[in-house]
Amino acid sequence: MTIDVVDAATDEIVEAFARLIPQLTDSVTPPGHEALARMITSEATTLFVVRLDGKIEGALALGIYRIPTGVRAWIEDVVVSPEMRGRGVGQALVERALTLAREAGAASVELTSRPEREAANRLYQRLGFELRTTNVYRFTFATA
């Protein structure tokens, strides 16, 4: 398994998002070349993909941005192909995003997950995210 930061909106990337995004929602059209290119060139967004045997089997978007109170990070659109679920792919993606967020100076990372995504919710809690009353999870880095 390899996790890569997406650096170009290639046909392979567009196809992978076209295949993966419908697993998250059927109300959004997967991003095409132009939309992916804008995300990839944005300083605030990092797209990760995970490859198994050369095929993209999962993806995650990490937003990192500065506001007056500090650096914030948010994980969005974590998705793993159905045949690869339960094999640590999602965990590896999230851990890679957490590492990058911490290196960027974020004090915490937030994400949301629908309650019916039970396996995903268990994963986030296992990784140290805490359920907030808003159903927003927060991961707080331990201070040295």
Can you describe what's shown?
The protein is 30% helix and 33% strand. The chain has 144 residues and is of the alpha+beta class. It has a single domain, classed as Aminopeptidase (3-Layer(aba) Sandwich). It starts with a strand and ends with a strand. The mean pLDDT is 92.
- Percent helix: 25-40%
Percentage of residues in strands: 25-35%
Shape: globular
CATH top level assignment: Alpha Beta
Structural class comes to alpha+beta
Q: State the end-to-end distance.
A: 31 Å
Residue runs with pLDDT of under 50 for 5 or more positions:
none
CATH topology label: Aminopeptidase
Output the radius of gyration: 15 Å
Can you identify the CATH superfamily? Gcn5-related N-acetyltransferase (GNAT)
* Strand numbers in spatial order across the main sheet: 1-2-3-4-5-7-6
Question: Mean pLDDT, as a whole number?
Answer: 92
